[in-house]
Amino acid sequence: TAHNTDVEHTDVRHLDPERADLLGDEAVADPYPLLAALREHDPVHWSAKYRSWFITRYDDVAAALRDDRFSSDRITPYRRAKLEGPDADPRVRAAFEVLEGWMVFKDQPDHLRLRRLLSRAFTPRAVTRMTSSVEEIAAELLDGIVARGTGDVDLVGDFAYPLTASVIADMLGVPRADREQFKDWSDQITGLVFGGMGDATRHTVGAQGMAELTSYLADLVRAHERAPADDLISAMISARDDRDALSHDEVISTGVLLLFAGHETTTNLIGNGILALLRNPAQLALLRDRPGLVDGMVEEALRFDGPAKTVARVMGDDVELRGRHLRRGERVFLSPSSANRDPAVFADPDTLDITREKSGQLGFGIGMHYCLGAPLARLEASIAIPRAFARLPGLRLTDESLRWHPVLLSRGMQRFPARFTTP
Ligand code: HEM
């Protein structure tokens, strides 16, 4: 496969405006050659097609993520511009209003207020307590896959997705019986968050999912307000400090954020991580021999082919960077996937090496918005990936032409077909 060859990396053909398109077929299948070309030849790249900047060098991505002139509120300007007119669908507007309540889309001081309160509920201890639950869910799913007796598996649809969705649902306190429903809603919301801004069908479907999930969570939050339980929804309701607490609506909106953020990305980490090991059998053998390398493997999976292809910002001010003028109001995509392959920071960046010393990968972002769920994502991946290899002997790819989500923001497979040996 082309994904590991160095030859193409400096190929300027990729900078041909027609081809410098992260949503072109080639780049969706393997974005790294294009990202390498941008990093080298045009690190602050203006895309006329997306009317956006693409920033690809490690130092620039890290600095921009820490710079509040790069605003996180990319929802409000869009809602004001597109969803306020008389023809705008009120349900789409309502859905965008829920997104506007998410801390990930807020600037200071609103962001820090929400983050501080959520941190009181979503604690490292609350994550550690999920360990046995993650182990049980992984074992159940893998038993089910083996019990089918076919030796076929879709590692995304049959394993990573149901695992990560069940874990965050358990943690929040969503009843098991309701899981299937919220999976559908969450899929629909994905179209809203990751989908092309302005894609009307995805917006209508996403808005419907958002309305249903929000009203479902509203009932659940009310039930928890009457009868607190030992779960994250109850912890969010009671999270307060001497000045402040989350409101009823904020608990609902943060619940939607956690459900969503909790599994879309983690599914991709587990899928991409298993794929990277299947394509690098020596690294897989090393992990088998030295299970203690599991944490290093997860960090390397985040670096080598992590789920955050880009993170979006909107310029809150005019900024000059490498001689280019980024103007207030312009959209910017900062690319962790590219930063994580920057040869200025990582030796031999296109090689998977689970024994790398301290990584510094940017797969969870950096700065104020650094991923709050990183400990949970690491826990899930560190259990799921080794368990899959242990329970599915002879696991192998069936189809090298994998289908990847054709989106700018995230890197993950739609399906991940594989085979294993049955007794
Ligand atoms: C923020 C990636 C899993 C909750 C972020 C950001 C990134 C990221 C890049 C920063 C976004 C920005 O700067 O605009 C990932 C990846 C994951 C993952 C790659 C899995 C491998 C999770 C999980 C949860 C979670 C499991 C929770 C259950 C959040 C929250 C924020 C966030 C709440 C917003 C933090 C803030 O704005 O202060 N994540 N995430 N994430 N993530 Fe994750």
UniProtKB/TrEMBL annotation:
CDD domains per UniProt: CYP164-like
Q: Does the keyword Chaperone apply?
A: no
Family, per the entry? Belongs to the cytochrome P450 family.
Q: Which UniProt keywords apply?
A: Heme, Iron, Metal-binding, Monooxygenase, Oxidoreductase
Q: Which InterPro entries match?
A: Cyt_P450 (IPR001128), Cyt_P450_B (IPR002397), Cyt_P450_CS (IPR017972), Cyt_P450_sf (IPR036396)
* Protein name, as recorded: Cytochrome P450
